[in-house]
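Example 3.2
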Amino acid sequence: MIGTEKVRVIDATITVTCAGGTVFAGSYRLVTTLTDARRYPAAVLAGLYHQRWEHESAYYALRHTIMNGRVLRSGDPAGVEQEMWALLTLYQTLRTVMVEAAESLPGTDPDRCCFTVALQTARDQVVQAAAVITDPVDAGRPGLIGHRILTRLLPPRRQRVSTRKVKSPMPRYSTRHEDGRPDNTRTVTGLDINILEPPESRPQLPAVSRDDRHTALAKRRRHRILALLEKDPDRLWRPRDIASHFGDITMETMYRQLSRWAETGLIHKLGPGLYAATTWTPTPLA
């Protein structure tokens, strides 16, 4: 459970074979709200995992293809919201037309449809004020935009793999650990997905999430911790003392939450890892 949402966890080991004989494997854990295992087999979802970067293509299409690098023109929130809805509506409409065009030609992967071609054709129709009249006989056939898309299909996508690299000359992260992945882009020649079945003697999973935003106010972690600090307002508390007092809070979570509460003035930070109570109210703000 994540909050009130029931999720499904899929464990898999993926082995990648690249051109040149390079082979490497990794363990992945996919969390999804698609809980119906019959309708959404684990192997299929794991196989789609490598397309998780597709949302970056959507951002690129919005920022560069549609907007051509320009910024929003509105100078007030209502205008910005209106422009954003217009952009998202246009984007979604063009993507729908692209999918319908690909479906009209069996065996065509929608990934081969060019978003730029769809946008330019739609723009030409608006500029030329070309009326589109659909004949009942042509129902189900792609229109002008779909026709242009199908005549200018992109080559089939190649499966590739490449390591993520930090472009900054002064990275904040340590050197990448050697895991067998190639340093340069390689063509993937084989992809083997092994779904890991949960053991029969697996521990009992929690019935509720530790996310307490949907619980009663008095049972929330923040309320309980602030109540503890208020009992002894002159004591300097350390995160490990608070975490050990409750027993269900990790040190990482404790440090992060105390630091955030100190920044908002809910508690006082009197030194490195030293916190004390301040005036607070359990009543949520309106």
